[in-house]
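ESCALATION

Customer reports they have been waiting on this structure for their group meeting. Please prioritize. Original submission:
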Amino acid sequence: MSLETLPPTPLATSPEATPAAAPTATFTGVDGKGILISEPAMKQLGALMAQQGAGMVLRVGVRSGGCSGMSYTMDFIDASGIRADDEVYVYESEAGPSFRVVSDPKSLLYIYGMQLDFSSALIGGGFNFSNPNATQTCGCGSSFAV
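Update from on-call: job pushed to the front of the queue and completed.
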């Protein structure tokens, strides 16, 4: 009997078999574009931004290197370091201060639509990148290939 002639097998649909995950809010820039940022990441970035002081922005991008060929970068820079061709996104949250995320056009080709999350777990904690453009990622989650 071939696989095409077998009747479909129903999946378990009882509530006990598949616990529902709690929905996580995600934020985009005020204009609805940019990187998706989860609620835990928004809180962590807001706290880090407050420590950095006024006039700082978060630069997110990519560079060559890492296990898979390209790696993510995240740095706080002075707002005077924003270049004319950079894309600037403003993120606002009811739970914390607003802040700006800056990215260069070349990096945006690779990270547009990416989700940034944060985990406070002892093992594997920190910022995590989920990139729909990546065809391959490394085990640490800090590098990718397209």
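Sent to customer with the following note: The beta strands are 26-27, 36-38, 56-64, 70-78, 87-93, 96-103, 115-119, 126-130, 136-137, 143-145.
Escalation resolved.
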